[in-house]
Design a protein that fits this description.
Blueprint (H helix, E strand, L loop, with lengths): L17 H10 L4 H19 L2 E3 L2 H13 L10 E5 L26 H8 L3 E6 L28 H8 L5 E6 L5 H7 L2 E4 L19 E6 L2 H10 L15 E5 L9 H16 L3 E5 L8 H16 L1 H6 L5 H7 L7 H21 L5 E5 L19 H6 L3 E8 L5 E7 L5 H16 L7
Helix pairs in contact: 2-3, 7-14, 9-12
Amino acid sequence: MTHSPDVETTVSGDPLTATAIVRDVTSGARSAAEVARQSLEVVAEWEPKVQAFEFLDPALVVAQAQGVDRVAVKGPLAGVTLAVKDVIATKDMPTGHNTARYKGVQTGVDAACVDTLRAAGAIVLGKAVTTEFASTARGGKTRNPHDLTRTPGGSSSGSAAAVACGMAAVGLGTQTGGSTIRPASFNGIFGWKPTWNVISREGLKVYSLTCDTLGLYARDINDFDMLADVFDLDPCDVPQSLEGLRVGFCRTPMWEKAEAPMRAAMDAAALALKSAGAQVIEVELPDIFNGIAEAHGVILAREGRSAFLNEVRNTPDIGVQYRDLVSNARGITPESARAAYALADRCRASFDEIMGGFDVMMTPSSCGEAPEGLESTGDASLNSMWTLLQVPVVSAPGLTGPHGMPLGISFVARRYGDRKAIKVAGLAAPLFEQTGDDLT
């Protein structure tokens, strides 16, 4: 991990990964309260620099942990600390959506995903910074732990940064375009956008019901295996090695958006996979995919009209982006909306057929390294296609660009093949770390 000179390294040995926490708490090596206090020590060191949290109450964190310790039979996530994106409802903390109307508002109920994780013994460390309503590329206060002058990405800015510097074991984000996978790439951690709707979205701010998906972050790929079990994801065949694996090298119709360092990273990743015995095969998607980026934009514009109608009607000074959505400034007609949905359906069916010949696809997790400055969270052009296809995507870290910043490689499986994408990303990441010199 490469950092700017004034940023210290993470906790030695990453003792605060979910896998390590569960092992220690269930064995009695550490109590959940001890984990909570250790997490808060990391927060005290990093939060002044990274500013990942919108809300964090140390007393509440310790109280949750003490509750876990009082339970005789420990849950599968006993003591695991969560950074929860501030568009996800929490019963005991405000859910502010980074907008004035909801500042300090407390729902009194947990989102379904948080409810499930708490039932498994997880502890909500705090509410992590998001862009407004998780729907804009305008940057906020959160900084990239690898270089404090750069963005951590968005809209799941705080969740990714909190996991990257070891404050939280697991981060919860969302993705409607590239809001989980892009920050995973920028922060050098594992990011997982599950198959659409395999994890309930009840209690998460809605933008696009067609695309909105919960996202997850971790520093240890085994943490995703535990989370997949807790969320009762479908079993599927998973490889035990990369030997003989059929991997599609997919540039996508948006390849021109990929910067030179990311193109080099893709080539380096392909060579690493081949060295481990995988077959890496160039994939050219059918022409119908050429319109998928436009279809994504049309669907978001259409669905954003209803998602933000109440906000515009009740918030006179709301941003122009939301007024434009509600007023249909793009002039999206019912005919153009139907055409966009139809194209998305055809692309999903086509991609499912294509994936019959592959184990996974590999594709860029971002356009390049995290941009300098905090004004923008970066470009999601290379992510939105996969979100609209509703397929699982897991970003694997390990490669770096010319400025020493992380570059993630995404592994995409067919719908409901999340566990396969997780496994391949876990097998690939150590190879990426061994590639040596930064890419130029």
